[in-house]
């Protein structure tokens, strides 16, 4: 039997994994991470700077092997199924401070109508927003807690079997789980099949919110929910 390392989720990083359609019937996986919040009172704070990661696909092949820095991403295609991820968390001196070993299930996105994983981008100024709207290779954030001084751009891949873009709608849901308002949705011209949602946070009180995203076509309906918190 092939050796399988024990599964372990590191407390030093907050990872995020997203999926979209890849090439040749595969699923494209995007991985980003950020440092987890420090424990109050901890005098020996270890700060992660990079992640050395290896991803093994369901077919046993190595789909990715390399270094992923903070505010960077790893993008690779795998067949749908279970993939194994082995990560070494390193500090600025390239010392290993922890490991993270986990499995994730990668969905097949070949359905009649499907949504990929919503990606979140944060902006503070009008210039940030303009740059993000035009940046094809922008790196999404792993964070799901934001300030009211920020504005979110949410990108979601939407696919329909008839090759026509499905109709995508997004609704902001309040901390009381009530629909607040419809959000503006627009296509991203430079990214085929990707829709973008613009969400200013300035008018929201602190609390837990979500965005309900739906895609409709003659083939049916697909839905995704993105949860996030407004802190102050």
Descriptive notes:
By secondary structure, the protein is mainly beta. Helices cover 4% and strands 53% of the residues. The strands form 4 sheets. Strands 8, 9, 11, 14 and 15 form a 5-stranded antiparallel β-sheet that branches. The termini are far apart.
Offer a concise description of the structure.
Helices cover about 5% and strands about 55% of the residues. It has about 230 residues and is mainly β. Strands 8, 9, 11, 14 and 15 form a five-stranded antiparallel sheet that branches.
Structural class: mainly beta
Approximate helicity band: under 10%
- Mind telling me the C-alpha Rg? 19 Å
How is the biggest beta sheet arranged? 5 strands, antiparallel
Average pLDDT level: 92
CATH class of the largest domain: Mainly Beta
Question: What is the third-level CATH name, the topology of the largest domain?
Answer: Immunoglobulin-like
> Count the strands?
17
Strand content: over 45%
Regarding quaternary structure, how should these chains be classified?
Answer: single chain
Count helical runs: 1
Mass-distribution shape: globular
Could you say how many structural domains there are in total?
A: 2
Task: Write the CATH homologous superfamily of the largest domain.
Answer: Macroglobulin (MG2) domain
Q: What is the CATH-assigned architecture of the largest domain?
A: Sandwich
pLDDT under 50 segments (min length 5)?
Answer: none
Distance between the termini: 52 Å
Order of helices and strands: EEEEEEEEEHEEEEEEEE
